[in-house]
Amino acid sequence: MEIESTNDLGIPVSSLRDYHVNGVRGDMRAALERDGAIVVRQLVGESKLSRVRDGLLDDLRRVGWLRGNAGNLQANMLLKCVDPEPRYRRTYRRLIANPDLHDIPHDRSLDKFAALIGIEELFRHPRVVLRVVFPETPPTPPHQDWTTVQGSQEAITVWLPLVNCELDMGPLAVLTGSHLNGERPFIKGSGVGGKVTITNATDIWSSASLKLGDAIVFKSLTVHRALPNRTDSLRLSLDFRIQSLAEPIHCASLLPPMGLKSWEDLYANWTTQTNRYYWRVRHPILDCNEDEIKLGAAQTIDLQKSRVYSALLAELAAIRAAQALQN
Ligand SMILES: O=C(O)CCC(=O)C(=O)O
After folding, report:
1. pTM
2. Which of 127, 159, 169, 240 is the best mutation target for the ligand 1 pocket, counting ligand atoms within 8 Å of the beta carbon and taking the most?
3. Claim to verify: residue 326 and residue 232 sit in the same structural domain
């Protein structure tokens, strides 16, 4: 395997296999099954993404996280912060409420891509994650999405930078083939639901330099991490999950993005009805045991957890109500 570069963390990086979204059926699917991750060039239209990016950059300039004028991505290190610090979350709640971000997973190109990798009826998880990564902050540690997301092992994560992202800006990196050996042992750690996959110092991580519109897509069991952001700029990216409607989904995947109490909170300033609550009438089989949720809510002494449990119950009730209206 050809090694492209290393960085100061001593992480050797090789190239991920690269496809264009207008690629040949079968090719991408086979590569995804074999390697657990691929790069898809121009998955989402650049013009749509640049509009979203420009709006986001304006917001970031307004809150002071960016220095200088339009077009400049240089981070204001005086305000450096990282999730889950309260000051990160405060700004995050405003940024993630932008309806344009939530429209990206609904781009028609995703249907085309899903067909190419063998998903017949596509379901988009509504829990979109925006990441704003300051330089000199710890990169996302190794993990498997399956450990926290559950639901279907066939679910696919789409990781999409919202700026051109060279290797030194810290894109996502994966251990190719790691999805083939099931769930790996993990230890408690910060970020990623507190579960950090144990990896070896000699592991070779695969990644790629990405242009706006390119994505890294990977399977739920694929071990992945972020490379360190060694530039002086903010790294901006979006990740969301897609899957077949025929596969199960854990109901926690239908909760609002982190840091928000309810979907109503997220939608409070939306002027559009588009993309709201679409999963309440059309969703995969719900993979969650209500008794367990109730028991957890009754027993837990952890406030955060009990909030999540109540939100789950509320979402389940809302799904039932929406379905009753339909029938
Ligand atoms: O963007 C990052 O830093 C991590 C992304 C990630 O872990 C994911 O998309 O599952």
Report:
1. 0.93
2. 159
3. no
